[in-house]
Amino acid sequence: MRIGILGTRGIPNNYGGFEQFAQFLSVGLVQRGHSVWVYNSSNHPYREKEWEGVHIIRCTDWENYIGSAGQFVYDYNCLKDARKRGFDVLLQLGYTSNSVWHRLWPKDALNVINMDGLEWKRSKYGPLTRKFLLHAEKWAAQHGDILVADSTNIRDYLEKRYHRPLAHIPYGAEIPEYYVAGNLGRWGLDKQDYFLLMARMEPENNIEMIIRGWLAADRKKPLVLIGNPGNAFGSYLQKTYRKDDLLFVGGIYDAEVANALRHYSSFYFHGHSVGGTNPSLLEAMACECAILAHNNSFNKTILGKEAGYFASEDDIAGLLERLPEQQIIDEWKQVNTEKIRNMYTWEGIVDSYEQLFADNLQGKKRTDGKLQVL
């Protein structure tokens, strides 16, 4: 199959979850004999035309000059190019700006849309933007040939709202073969002697709630925050919370370093509240983290009983002052690692996408102009 993937800033991953997903999926599909093209932003530092056998198409991206509106220009440029490529499958990751251009989606390709999370619920957006994002969700759901949800919660919501079947394929993660404790040295950290939070600096990730709960507790361990603080919210957090034992270490895209910080943390905070199967959560599980997570259906579907949960600053302070016994913590780690090994492997995710593409290309079955999820 000739497969195009758009909707990310590109590969190799230098940003976040969808980029990580595009990286593993594209390489996995190439290893199975398919021809794969990934669209890269012109702002991406990687400049070659190929990476690990995946073809790279660079498209003009004005986000650095005009802000988030540049995403619409970037997606327009990607789709305009995709119309000329003769793809069998065009996988679009997310819908926030892609769906505006649904009339440009190549008609001769199978248009597969990964519907991501409930973007219109994100607290960082104002009322008008949320209204637009709800429309964008509707356009994607109406015009995509195949819709994919990464969590059962998202799938159930979309099926009920738009009366269309969805494929459920989660994200994946790798269990590291080793951890380099020496990576802690640059921040003066010791094994099991710090708390960790890894997230984009956005309000809906409840970073401020976690900081305030940590401050309110009778804390004895530093709190380390991994994430690029270059936006307005990140700047606000850094200016507001100045503590010697509150470490803003910035974005870390070296997997060996990030995995060591995860593995050797005492507890890992996961504050994400909007979305499906979050990649950073799976990576924390893969690194044998003891996890304290925001209490919502997305996180609970994945973690089940193998985590502590919070919904307020007081909850966080209480968790830190009354931590579980070591036996329970060890059980959390073991069970969550087994989930990664059995349910969230990249090999399994690549298999599922390959099968979804192949089935719907070879056995196209149209009802009311839409392909069925076979």
UniProtKB/TrEMBL annotation:
Domain Glycosyl transferase family as annotated: residue spans: 190-322
GO MF: glycosyltransferase activity
InterPro entries to which the protein is assigned, alphabetical: DUF1972, Glyco_trans_1
Domain DUF1972: from-to ranges: 4-174
One protein family per Pfam: DUF1972
UniProt-listed SUPFAM superfamilies: UDP-Glycosyltransferase/glycogen phosphorylase
Domain of life: Bacteria
Protein name stated in the entry: Glycosyltransferase family 1 protein
